[in-house]
Amino acid sequence: MVNVTIDGIRVSVPENTKILDAARLAGVKIPTLCYWEGLNEIAACRVCAVEVEGFQKLVTACNNVVWEGMAVRTNSKKARDARRTNLELILADHNAECPSCVRNGNCTLQTVAGEAGVREIPFDRNIPAKKQEGNFPLVRDYSKCIKCMRCIQVCDKIQHSNVWDVVNTGEKTTVDVRDVYRLEDSQCALCGQCITHCPVGALHERDDVDKALDALYDPEKITVIQIAPAIRTAWGEVFGLSPAEATVERLCAALKIAGFDYIFDTNFTADLTIMEEGTELLERLKNKESSRFPMFTSCCPGWVRFLKAHYPEYTENLSTAKSPQQMFGAVAKSYYAKLLNVEPERICCISIMPCLAKKHECAIPVMNDACGQPDVDLALTTREAERLIMQAGIDPAAIEDRPLDLPLGVGSGAGNIFGATGGVMEAALRTAYAVVAGRNPEPDAFRDVRGMDGWREMTFDLAGTPLRVAVAHSLGNADKLLKAIKAGEADYDFVEVMACPGGCVGGGGQPIHDGCFCAPDRAEVLYRQDADSPLRFSHENPSIQAIYADFLGEPLSHLSHQLLHTDHTLWKMPNEE
Amino acid sequence: MEDPIVAGVKIILFVDRKCGILYNREDKTFINIVNNNERKKEKGKCGCDRFAPQEKRIMSRLSIVNKDRATETVEELYKDAERRIQASQPGLCPVDLAALFLRLCHAQSCGKCTPCRVGLGKLSALIEDVLSGRGTAATLPLIERTAGSIFESADCAIGREAARMVLKGVKGFREDYEEHINHGRCLGLQNQPVPCVALCPAHVDIPGYISLIHAGRFGDAVQLIRKDNPFPAVCGLICEHPCEERCRRTFVDDPINIRGLKRYAVEHESEVPMPEIAPATGKKIAVVGGGPAGLTAAYYLSVMGHSVTVYEQRHKAGGMLRYGIPGYRLPREILDKEIGILQRTGFQILCDVSVGKDITLQALREENDAVYIAIGAHTDRKLGIEGEDAAGVVSAVEMLRAIGDNNYPDYKGKTVAVVGGGNVAMDVARSAVRLGAKSVTIAYRRRKIDMTALPEEVEGAIADGCEIAELMAPVRVEKDENGSVAALWVKPQIVGEVKWGRPAPVNADAPEIRMACDLVLVAVGQGIDSRYFGENDVPLKRGTIAALDSGAVTTLEGVFSGGDCVTGPATVIRAIAGGKVAAANIDEYLGFHHEIKSSVALPPMRIDDNEPMGRVNMTERPAAERRRDFCLMEHCMSDQEAHQEASRCLHCDHFGYGSFKGGREEKW
């Protein structure tokens, strides 16, 4: 332990504690802007500079450690002046059109500058051009980038995607796409982690709220909404609702009040995915010689993009099952259109997803199996859904829950945990076991696949046959896993990969909390809901049983193949031949 | 701090530059002028805060002082800027730099003439357009035409040379201009690694080991160096230290004495533990040549668990370290000790075995899983002048090789002429002095400042008593009746036009000069004895072995090559880097991915105000003493010096871009 003094307050902290953390223990808050613990400790913004007794130059608190007897002053004139000057300098080059910014009210620069008392910018403004072009789901606004470098760090270190890099030097230094000139030509997986790590509005999703409203106000259109599992862990955050209050039923009520026609649950097609993908796995295991192993899950389009970009030779290891989002679209515009007795073209299928890659996925040209038009018309992120509700003037705290519509609004707890890393694996194992053994396992029999370790592997006894499975989340771990498989150092039957750290609950489309890795808490919400659910097995979902009985026949039937499966080789990433 | 303001027989009144207070040196008082009539004397130190109030400043007599102060400050700033340019880091945008240089040129313009006064500004604006993404297809031709016209029509060098710089840039980095115009950004990505680490060919963790030296952990420092360079003792003495070239400390004062610190660490380490050897892989590797490249590869490959045999054609291993570098720079016992440490990793050195004579390359390839060819550059280049076959014309390689085997020739009373201007020329000249020569004259066809030898080597040779005959081109060797050297005839030269960045010498209108001498030592470069390998399917490129940057020889499966025999005669640290690269790629080639890392934990980052502080330079034994023996010439830093020098490190691994990218490679 070392003894230090922060603004006159004595604290004793472990050796190698950062000044920032020592100050926190002393109850002193040192503002930070570029800093992200463990990821971006580069002291670029210089906002956390403090005075250390005995030294003339200021010292950044975020990346320097304390020593015995260190005396720190965080609010000396020198420190205050430097903090304010640096913020003024950042603002001089920042497009501070705050009211129209997507991050208004949730912007670290706004907060820190406000708290530091910056009121006027004494410098000429020099704001780079926006340079926005194209229709890519991920948008970079160069006029707002403050060069904190977090996007580069998360993309390199956590996602191993290396999409961003520093370009130019001196005054012209900025962050831009690496190796190519346009984002759409890059190997971007569209995980959106750069957005959730951006302290300002320099990175955001393509805003599709207006398109959803266009459909809403089109009298010809029947709007059908699906809500992904992870949404129910986070959508209420911006409205001040706890996870217990922010139920999917309350979200359903808000969307109904906003005017949408039918509100359904992606959990339903998560269950359907289990039926199709689980059966596919059992089929592959039956025909081991002619099948490719390991079989990879295909629910996460960020992962699919990453795999195709960096390991295209493994594309056919992906399950042919569509993701729950796409299965939902195909079902909505076939089965449900029939139930409604309407032309499928009249249905506008909108999904609410924690994800940017879903915007790409629904626009893949071959995802049009129900009627020739896109199965899913629009994918909104959790944040867009929040904005949509906010724009409609709805106060979710003040409304009553409403049940989701039938029959596509019924999902099992197994479908619900799709939103957390390991969830797809656990749900699949529950049903696979039941199919092979002829009886249900304990619902929590496979809980060992849960957790936040980046790459977990287990072997389960599937009624006599050992099944070697692995779960990875974040593309960095996926990359390591693929490298190991490629090198022959790892060998599995079935692998679940989620692009985002923690799975969809940590998705790039989720609400943003600067500096916080929210996925573990959000995952807990899903597991609690699963535990409380009367339905713990996908195959026991009555709506699933009904759709097979009335429409699809059985898993991997001809109709299932047509509607619920896809060929991942039919579209290309920019580098694919 | 102070400027004299009263000139006279004895200057006693000074004015404090900062606060304008008068200071009397005689009685050490400050004169505080309250009003024109009242002068108040105060004792003590001038504190600018205390004496600075505006109304108390003295009036008219300060104006001249202010002007002088400005000039003086600008002179200081010139020096600051010079040092900054000198240490400018790699990876900068050439177009941005071109714009900067142009602004400097424009500030120098007197403004009399149109092309310079107006033109340079317009050029600046055009380059700024390029940098700001406003450039079009027409911009570059306009820059060229404008700069061309300024170059041709400027009245003096201020404008003309400014335009020349712009034209040079447009030609030299046209692609960078075009990338900015077409895509609004620099060619390539920003890459600003830690300068010393990046410029060290072996990428030694220099800030890391300097912090360990500062912390007094010398053994750990040496261990950390060995992660990337197994020759810390050798390099501490004779490395050409490219690491110091762009040391950012130069922005403050002068580069860190990195080599000196390394030597200090080596001399103060207690026994350094050997790295852990990986489990035996069962793979066999033959290394041809026991010089720095071969031994480096052998060391790392052994650490990786491979079984390595080094084939050395001379009596002892060491290559040019033994047979090229005289002992007063690198004592044999230090070299032997270092090679002994490397061998503790378990590889074998077979001396007096020449590949091509005693064993064939084919046999080596058949018996081993991989072969690394690192035969160095050990043949001498001839002068190609009449009489070169005279007895007493000795090549540098021949002379230093004999010394390497402890066969010291006797030069007592001899008059020696050395031909050449590189480090090897200095080595033979200084060795000749130590061998008892009566006089040693180095004949060089260019000027002394054009010599490729390190300036300190040239100065050292002069201090040792060597003469430098600059601008003297050897034309023939005169033989006596026995066919021995009688004299070296040289033709005086005049320095001429600059070609390829160096002024070329041309014959002067002066008669040839006869330099009577007994010996002519020729040090005009070395070649590679690659013939045998060329005849055995190893691809050659102008005499060097053609290998990729990975060390792989493309046409021969499992054969790698590196060091001087690939690069041509170069530095020891480049050879070491070659061996390190080869070790990594041979390991990969054999299907492994062993990681070389160090277990040394670095001390917490030190905070320092980094105020300017002089660089500790190395000192040497007095010339009169050292020129009589082959003992180590250079003194080591003292404890006090080493601690102070280590504290000067700015730690670019933590402060600056290094905390973001390129700061530290913990393993390779």
Description:
The complex is a heterodimer of chains A (577) and B (668). Chain A has three domains: 89 residues, Ubiquitin-like (UB roll) (Roll), CATH 3.10.20; 69 residues, 2-Layer Sandwich (Alpha-Beta Plaits); 361 residues, Fe-only Hydrogenase (Larger Subunit), Chain L, domain 3 (3-Layer(aba) Sandwich), CATH 3.40.950.10. With 577 residues, chain A is of the alpha/beta class. Chain A has 18 helices and 17 strands. In chain A, the strands form five sheets. A five-stranded mixed sheet of chain A has the order 2-1-5-3-4, with helices on both faces. In chain A, strands 11-10-13-14 form a four-stranded parallel sheet, sandwiched between helices. Chain A is globular. In chain A, a hairpin with a 2-residue loop joins strand 1 and strand 2. Chain A is 33% helix and 14% strand. Chain A starts with a strand and ends in a 13-residue tail after the last helix. The model of chain A has no long low-confidence stretch (mean pLDDT 95). In chain A, helix 2 crosses helix 3, helix 8 crosses helix 10 and helix 8 packs across helix 14. Chain B has 668 residues and is an alpha/beta fold. Chain B has five domains: 81 residues, no CATH class; 92 residues, NADH-ubiquinone oxidoreductase 51kDa subunit, iron-sulphur binding domain (de novo design (two linked rop proteins), Up-down Bundle); 131 residues, no CATH class; 141 residues, FAD/NAD(P)-binding domain (3-Layer(bba) Sandwich); 148 residues, FAD/NAD(P)-binding domain. Chain B is 37% helix and 15% strand. In chain B, helix 3 packs antiparallel against helix 4. The N terminus of chain B is likely disordered. At the A-B interface, strand 7 of A face loops of B.
